[in-house]
Each structure stands twice: as structure tokens, then as C-alpha cells.
Amino acid sequence: MKINNKILFTFLLIILIVYLFSTNKSNFTVKIKVAKNNNEKLRGLMFRKSLDIREGMLFKNINSVWMKNTLIPLDVIFLDNDYKVVGFVEDTVPLSLDIIKIDKKSNHILEVASGFIRKNNVRIGGKMIGVEIDKLT
Q1: What pTM was estimated for this model as a whole?
Q2: What is the pLDDT of residues 29-56, one digit of tens each?
Q3: Residue 70 CA to chain centroid, in angstroms?
Q4: Where are the alpha helices (DSSP H) in the chain?
Q5: CATH class (in words) of the domain with range 26-132
Q6: How far apart (Å, rounded) are the C-alpha atoms in residues 109 and 44?
Q7: Rounded to an integer, what distance in angstroms lies between the CA atom of residue 100 and that of residue 81?
């Protein structure tokens, strides 16, 4: 049985396209401290002088933040209920009172050290795999 070269080429091209689209959505793992009460939600990462690049703070049922009293630049990742990335803002400005949000519906926010998104190749559609910790280092 002889396979037509055009059919074989088309088949391989389709496989390549499917592969590229499926691998473009990177999942990422991060150690998270969940803000569990109003005090933790209000304080967030304020007054911290550093944050380990592998750690972050998760805010559930919040879709905007600001940088009041936050001394370090952050990357802010907006997540849906399945913890898939729906948007992000990189390299926020410390101490800014501007509201940080995106123009899409989000349910949760993950704040991580500036550079986390680039270093971990975070993309829209990727999924956060969180390992909960009691406190940030």
C-alpha cells in the first residue's frame, strides 16, 4: 500500500499544529499562602521586603488589587474557578494606589514576585497547580 506524499504531509502538519496549540498553555506550580480571612486579604503582601520566586499569595473571590504599602514589584495573575489563567499584569509598581485588574472575568488572584510570569512561561489558559503552605518565607 503506497501512501500519497500530500496526504502524509497534511497529516503531519495537522499533528504539529495540534501539538503547538496544546503545549502553548503552560501549567505552573507555586507554593501558595491562601489569604483566608479579611485581615489576611487586606494586608496581603504589604510591607514585605522580599518574596521567594517560587511562592505567592492567593486571594479567592477577588478580581482587583492595588499596591498600597507593597514595597516590592509583583506579577499579578488572574484566575478562573478552575485556577486557569485568564490574564495577568507583570511588574506592578510598588506603593501605587492604581487599581490592578483586567478586562475579563476572573475569580481569584495570585500575587507572585516580579519576573515569575516570564521565568515560568505563564500563559493564558495555563493552570496554576498550588501547593498550600502555612506562611511565606
Answers
A1: 0.82
A2: 999 999 999 999 999 999 999 999 999 9
A3: 19
A4: 5-23, 38-43, 116-119
A5: mainly beta
A6: 11
A7: 19
